[in-house]
Amino acid sequence: MKTIILNGSPRRNWNTAQLLKEAQRGAESAGADVEYIDLYSLNFNGCRSCLACKRKGIAEPCKCYWKDELTPVLEKIWLADRLIAGAPIYYGEPASGMRALLERLAFPAMSYNDYSSVFKGRVDADIFLAMNAPMQYYRQAYEGRMQEYFAPLRFLNGQVRIFPVCDTLQVRDYSKYDMAGFSEEHKKAVHDAEFPKLLEQAFRIGAACEPNRETLMAMNEAESIAGDPDARRYSDVEEALKALKE
Ligand SMILES: Cc1cc2nc3c(=O)[nH]c(=O)nc-3n(C[C@H](O)[C@H](O)[C@H](O)COP(=O)(O)O)c2cc1C
Predict the structure, then answer these.
(1) Nearest residue CA, atom 20 of ligand 1?
(2) Domains of the chain, first to last
Protein backbone atom coordinates (compact mmCIF):
# COMPACT_ATOMS: atom_id res chain seq x y z
CA MET A 1 0.00 0.00 0.00
CA LYS A 2 1.45 3.32 -1.09
CA THR A 3 0.83 6.20 1.30
CA ILE A 4 1.80 9.82 0.75
CA ILE A 5 2.08 11.97 3.84
CA LEU A 6 1.98 15.69 3.22
CA ASN A 7 2.86 18.29 5.81
CA GLY A 8 1.03 21.47 4.87
CA SER A 9 2.49 23.45 7.77
CA PRO A 10 5.47 25.69 7.11
CA ARG A 11 6.80 24.49 10.47
CA ARG A 12 8.52 21.17 10.03
CA ASN A 13 8.39 19.91 13.59
CA TRP A 14 5.38 21.44 15.23
CA ASN A 15 1.85 20.20 15.86
CA THR A 16 0.86 19.23 12.32
CA ALA A 17 4.21 17.63 11.58
CA GLN A 18 4.28 15.69 14.85
CA LEU A 19 0.84 14.24 14.17
CA LEU A 20 1.80 13.33 10.63
CA LYS A 21 5.03 11.70 11.77
CA GLU A 22 3.03 9.53 14.18
CA ALA A 23 0.62 8.68 11.36
CA GLN A 24 3.69 7.76 9.31
CA ARG A 25 4.94 5.44 12.06
CA GLY A 26 1.48 3.90 12.25
CA ALA A 27 1.25 3.37 8.50
CA GLU A 28 4.75 1.86 8.42
CA SER A 29 3.88 -0.46 11.31
CA ALA A 30 1.01 -1.74 9.15
CA GLY A 31 3.42 -2.42 6.29
CA ALA A 32 2.62 0.59 4.11
CA ASP A 33 5.15 2.03 1.72
CA VAL A 34 5.25 5.61 3.00
CA GLU A 35 6.70 8.82 1.65
CA TYR A 36 6.70 11.95 3.81
CA ILE A 37 6.78 15.31 2.06
CA ASP A 38 7.07 18.83 3.49
CA LEU A 39 4.89 20.92 1.19
CA TYR A 40 6.61 24.17 2.18
CA SER A 41 10.03 22.88 1.15
CA LEU A 42 8.77 23.01 -2.45
CA ASN A 43 8.57 25.94 -4.84
CA PHE A 44 5.13 25.87 -6.42
CA ASN A 45 1.98 27.80 -7.26
CA GLY A 46 -1.71 27.10 -7.36
CA CYS A 47 -3.58 26.54 -10.61
CA ARG A 48 -2.44 28.93 -13.38
CA SER A 49 -5.63 28.37 -15.37
CA CYS A 50 -3.66 27.31 -18.44
CA LEU A 51 -6.53 24.84 -19.07
CA ALA A 52 -4.11 22.40 -20.70
CA CYS A 53 -5.78 19.69 -18.60
CA LYS A 54 -9.02 20.38 -20.50
CA ARG A 55 -7.58 20.34 -24.04
CA LYS A 56 -9.66 18.13 -26.35
CA GLY A 57 -7.98 14.98 -27.59
CA ILE A 58 -4.75 15.79 -25.79
CA ALA A 59 -5.21 16.05 -22.06
CA GLU A 60 -4.49 12.92 -20.04
CA PRO A 61 -6.77 12.23 -17.09
CA CYS A 62 -5.60 13.80 -13.84
CA LYS A 63 -2.50 15.38 -15.34
CA CYS A 64 -1.61 18.93 -14.33
CA TYR A 65 0.51 20.27 -17.16
CA TRP A 66 2.03 23.15 -15.20
CA LYS A 67 5.56 22.09 -14.30
CA ASP A 68 7.08 23.04 -10.98
CA GLU A 69 8.21 21.30 -7.81
CA LEU A 70 4.66 20.18 -7.04
CA THR A 71 4.48 18.11 -10.25
CA PRO A 72 6.10 14.95 -8.84
CA VAL A 73 3.99 15.20 -5.68
CA LEU A 74 0.77 15.29 -7.71
CA GLU A 75 1.91 12.30 -9.74
CA LYS A 76 2.71 10.38 -6.56
CA ILE A 77 -0.70 11.11 -5.04
CA TRP A 78 -2.50 9.74 -8.12
CA LEU A 79 -0.46 6.55 -7.86
CA ALA A 80 -1.04 6.16 -4.12
CA ASP A 81 -3.69 4.29 -2.18
CA ARG A 82 -3.79 6.83 0.53
CA LEU A 83 -3.07 10.49 1.22
CA ILE A 84 -2.53 11.59 4.79
CA ALA A 85 -2.21 15.36 4.89
CA GLY A 86 -2.21 18.04 7.52
CA ALA A 87 -2.32 21.81 7.73
CA PRO A 88 -2.65 24.54 10.32
CA ILE A 89 -5.70 26.78 10.22
CA TYR A 90 -4.79 30.33 9.18
CA TYR A 91 -7.62 32.86 9.24
CA GLY A 92 -10.29 30.23 9.34
CA GLU A 93 -8.93 28.07 6.50
CA PRO A 94 -6.11 25.60 6.01
CA ALA A 95 -2.84 27.43 5.27
CA SER A 96 -2.50 28.52 1.65
CA GLY A 97 -0.23 25.69 0.47
CA MET A 98 -3.14 23.30 0.90
CA ARG A 99 -5.38 25.41 -1.34
CA ALA A 100 -2.71 25.48 -4.04
CA LEU A 101 -2.33 21.71 -3.79
CA LEU A 102 -6.09 21.13 -4.00
CA GLU A 103 -6.40 23.32 -7.09
CA ARG A 104 -3.60 21.52 -8.90
CA LEU A 105 -4.76 18.06 -7.79
CA ALA A 106 -8.51 18.27 -8.23
CA PHE A 107 -8.99 20.46 -11.29
CA PRO A 108 -7.32 18.05 -13.76
CA ALA A 109 -9.45 15.24 -12.27
CA MET A 110 -12.73 17.10 -12.72
CA SER A 111 -14.64 16.74 -15.96
CA TYR A 112 -15.78 20.14 -17.19
CA ASN A 113 -18.41 18.32 -19.24
CA ASP A 114 -20.40 16.88 -16.35
CA TYR A 115 -18.33 17.58 -13.18
CA SER A 116 -17.67 13.87 -12.64
CA SER A 117 -14.25 12.52 -11.74
CA VAL A 118 -12.08 11.40 -14.65
CA PHE A 119 -9.97 9.39 -12.17
CA LYS A 120 -10.53 5.64 -12.48
CA GLY A 121 -8.85 4.67 -9.23
CA ARG A 122 -9.33 5.54 -5.60
CA VAL A 123 -7.21 7.40 -3.08
CA ASP A 124 -8.48 7.68 0.49
CA ALA A 125 -7.65 10.89 2.30
CA ASP A 126 -7.15 11.62 5.99
CA ILE A 127 -6.65 15.25 6.91
CA PHE A 128 -5.32 16.64 10.19
CA LEU A 129 -6.08 20.28 10.96
CA ALA A 130 -4.18 22.03 13.77
CA MET A 131 -5.56 25.22 15.25
CA ASN A 132 -5.70 27.53 18.24
CA ALA A 133 -9.46 27.38 18.38
CA PRO A 134 -11.01 25.09 20.99
CA MET A 135 -13.15 22.18 19.79
CA GLN A 136 -16.42 23.96 20.57
CA TYR A 137 -15.44 26.84 18.28
CA TYR A 138 -14.32 24.41 15.60
CA ARG A 139 -17.71 22.71 15.67
CA GLN A 140 -19.58 26.02 15.47
CA ALA A 141 -17.47 27.99 13.03
CA TYR A 142 -15.12 25.73 11.08
CA GLU A 143 -16.52 22.23 10.74
CA GLY A 144 -19.04 22.89 7.97
CA ARG A 145 -16.60 25.14 6.16
CA MET A 146 -13.94 22.41 6.21
CA GLN A 147 -16.33 19.93 4.60
CA GLU A 148 -16.79 22.41 1.76
CA TYR A 149 -13.12 23.32 1.61
CA PHE A 150 -12.06 19.70 1.12
CA ALA A 151 -14.96 18.88 -1.24
CA PRO A 152 -12.53 18.83 -4.23
CA LEU A 153 -11.03 15.67 -2.73
CA ARG A 154 -14.16 13.84 -3.90
CA PHE A 155 -12.45 13.58 -7.29
CA LEU A 156 -10.08 11.08 -5.65
CA ASN A 157 -13.09 8.71 -5.33
CA GLY A 158 -12.13 7.64 -1.81
CA GLN A 159 -13.27 8.42 1.68
CA VAL A 160 -12.29 11.79 3.12
CA ARG A 161 -11.88 12.08 6.88
CA ILE A 162 -11.04 15.29 8.70
CA PHE A 163 -9.42 15.26 12.16
CA PRO A 164 -9.42 18.60 13.98
CA VAL A 165 -6.64 19.14 16.53
CA CYS A 166 -7.72 22.06 18.69
CA ASP A 167 -6.23 24.43 21.24
CA THR A 168 -2.67 23.71 20.12
CA LEU A 169 0.48 25.04 21.71
CA GLN A 170 1.69 27.70 19.29
CA VAL A 171 5.08 28.55 20.86
CA ARG A 172 7.16 27.02 23.63
CA ASP A 173 7.52 30.19 25.68
CA TYR A 174 4.57 32.60 25.43
CA SER A 175 6.37 35.17 27.60
CA LYS A 176 8.69 35.94 24.68
CA TYR A 177 5.85 37.05 22.39
CA ASP A 178 3.07 39.62 22.29
CA MET A 179 0.39 36.99 22.70
CA ALA A 180 -1.58 38.18 25.69
CA GLY A 181 -4.76 36.82 24.15
CA PHE A 182 -3.65 33.32 25.12
CA SER A 183 -3.08 31.81 28.54
CA GLU A 184 0.22 29.93 28.50
CA GLU A 185 -0.92 27.99 31.54
CA HIS A 186 -4.08 26.81 29.76
CA LYS A 187 -2.25 26.05 26.50
CA LYS A 188 0.42 23.99 28.27
CA ALA A 189 -2.15 22.15 30.38
CA VAL A 190 -4.14 21.19 27.27
CA HIS A 191 -0.95 20.26 25.43
CA ASP A 192 0.33 18.04 28.24
CA ALA A 193 -3.02 16.34 28.81
CA GLU A 194 -4.39 16.03 25.27
CA PHE A 195 -1.60 16.09 22.72
CA PRO A 196 -0.06 12.71 23.69
CA LYS A 197 -3.52 11.14 23.22
CA LEU A 198 -3.87 12.82 19.84
CA LEU A 199 -0.46 11.48 18.80
CA GLU A 200 -1.62 7.97 19.72
CA GLN A 201 -4.78 8.53 17.71
CA ALA A 202 -2.69 9.73 14.76
CA PHE A 203 -0.65 6.51 14.99
CA ARG A 204 -3.83 4.44 14.91
CA ILE A 205 -5.24 6.43 12.01
CA GLY A 206 -2.00 5.84 10.13
CA ALA A 207 -2.07 2.12 10.91
CA ALA A 208 -5.63 1.51 9.76
CA CYS A 209 -4.93 0.81 6.13
CA GLU A 210 -5.91 -1.94 3.78
CA PRO A 211 -4.88 -2.21 0.15
CA ASN A 212 -7.65 -1.57 -2.33
CA ARG A 213 -8.01 -3.22 -5.66
CA GLU A 214 -9.21 -0.16 -7.61
CA THR A 215 -6.02 1.73 -6.91
CA LEU A 216 -3.86 -1.15 -7.98
CA MET A 217 -5.80 -1.18 -11.23
CA ALA A 218 -5.34 2.57 -11.61
CA MET A 219 -1.60 2.19 -10.96
CA ASN A 220 -1.32 -0.27 -13.79
CA GLU A 221 -3.22 2.08 -16.04
CA ALA A 222 -1.05 5.05 -15.07
CA GLU A 223 2.13 3.07 -15.64
CA SER A 224 0.98 2.18 -19.12
CA ILE A 225 0.30 5.89 -19.82
CA ALA A 226 3.75 6.84 -18.50
CA GLY A 227 5.27 4.34 -20.92
CA ASP A 228 3.41 5.82 -23.91
CA PRO A 229 6.01 6.28 -26.71
CA ASP A 230 3.75 8.70 -28.59
CA ALA A 231 4.84 11.72 -26.56
CA ARG A 232 4.63 14.02 -29.60
CA ARG A 233 0.87 14.39 -29.30
CA TYR A 234 1.44 16.38 -26.12
CA SER A 235 3.98 18.72 -27.64
CA ASP A 236 1.59 21.58 -28.46
CA VAL A 237 0.48 21.62 -24.82
CA GLU A 238 4.11 21.90 -23.76
CA GLU A 239 4.56 24.79 -26.19
CA ALA A 240 1.51 26.62 -24.87
CA LEU A 241 2.85 26.25 -21.32
CA LYS A 242 6.25 27.57 -22.39
CA ALA A 243 4.61 30.64 -23.93
CA LEU A 244 2.66 31.28 -20.71
CA LYS A 245 5.88 31.18 -18.66
CA GLU A 246 7.73 33.63 -20.92
C1 LIG B 1 -1.01 33.46 10.03
C2 LIG B 1 -1.70 32.65 11.11
C3 LIG B 1 -3.09 32.67 11.17
C4 LIG B 1 -3.75 31.86 12.11
N5 LIG B 1 -5.12 31.86 12.11
C6 LIG B 1 -5.78 31.02 12.95
C7 LIG B 1 -7.20 30.94 12.91
O8 LIG B 1 -7.88 31.62 12.15
N9 LIG B 1 -7.81 30.07 13.76
C10 LIG B 1 -7.11 29.27 14.63
O11 LIG B 1 -7.73 28.49 15.34
N12 LIG B 1 -5.76 29.32 14.66
C13 LIG B 1 -5.07 30.16 13.86
N14 LIG B 1 -3.70 30.21 13.87
C15 LIG B 1 -2.96 29.31 14.80
C16 LIG B 1 -2.47 28.03 14.15
O17 LIG B 1 -3.50 27.39 13.43
C18 LIG B 1 -1.95 27.07 15.21
O19 LIG B 1 -0.90 27.67 15.93
C20 LIG B 1 -1.49 25.75 14.65
O21 LIG B 1 -1.23 24.86 15.68
C22 LIG B 1 -0.24 25.89 13.81
O23 LIG B 1 0.12 24.63 13.30
P24 LIG B 1 1.63 24.10 13.44
O25 LIG B 1 1.90 24.06 14.92
O26 LIG B 1 1.63 22.74 12.84
O27 LIG B 1 2.50 25.04 12.70
C28 LIG B 1 -3.00 31.04 13.00
C29 LIG B 1 -1.60 31.06 12.93
C30 LIG B 1 -0.95 31.88 12.00
C31 LIG B 1 0.57 31.86 11.93
Answers:
(1) 131
(2) 2-245 (3.40.50.360)
Indicate which atom in ligand 1 lies nearest the CA of residue 11: 27
Residues 6+ apart with CB under 8 A from 170: 132, 179, 182, 187
Q: Tell how far the Cα of 170 is from the centroid of ligand 1, in angstroms.
A: 7
Which atom of ligand 1 is the closest one to the Cα of 132? 11
- Closest listed residue to residue 143, CA positions, set 153, 133, 152: 133
Q: Cα(53) to centroid of ligand 1, in Å? A: 33
Q: How many CA atoms lie within 13 A of 64 on its CB side?
A: 27
Task: Spell out which residues line ligand 1, taking CB within 6 angstroms.
Answer: 9, 11, 14-16, 88-92, 130-133, 168, 170
Please list the alpha-helical segments (H only) found in 30-159.
71-79, 96-106, 135-137, 143-149
Give the pLDDT of the chain (246 residues) as one tens digit per residue. 999 999 999 999 999 999 999 999 999 999 999 999 999 999 999 999 999 999 999 999 999 999 999 999 999 999 999 999 999 999 999 999 999 999 999 999 999 999 999 999 999 999 999 999 999 999 999 999 999 999 999 999 999 999 999 999 999 999 999 999 999 999 999 999 999 999 999 999 999 854 443 443 343 333 333 333 333 333 455 555 565 555
CA of 90 to the centre of ligand 1 (A): 5
Residue 74 CA, ligand 1 centroid: distance in Å:
25
